[in-house]
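User: I'm new to structure prediction. If I give you an amino acid sequence, what do you actually give back? Let's try with this one:
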Amino acid sequence: QVQLVESGGGLVQPGGSLRLSCAASGFTLGYHGIGWFRQAPGKEREGVSFIKTSDGRTEYADSVKGRFTISRDNVKNTVYLQMNSLKPEDTAVYLCAITYSLPVALTPVMYDYWGQGTQVTVSS
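Assistant: Good question. You get back a string of structure tokens that encode the predicted 3D arrangement of the chain. For your 124 residues, that looks like this:
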């Protein structure tokens, strides 16, 4: 059974940093990418970043480019999201997900398995 567990969220002041982790288990082959998404209260789920399994290609939403960095540790089966220069508008539940579809994109409906999410709150 596929399992994704996020961690690393919390409360941080504007301009601060957090590193989120997504630990994956229950599968070994076949998925094409892991993505990070976020959902704020009353808003739709939006794609933040993904990393493609085959070649490590990454993509970011315009709102986080230059501030967030996605990376992976294949030995630990863990994907990270380093978030710097955080803004109040980054406040949301952050979720990771895997996709077996191609092409890999920041489209939530294309993802097959989801974690429960971790809360990120940016506030002074």
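You can read the tokens as a compact description of the fold. Here is one thing that stands out. The longest strand covers residues 18-25.
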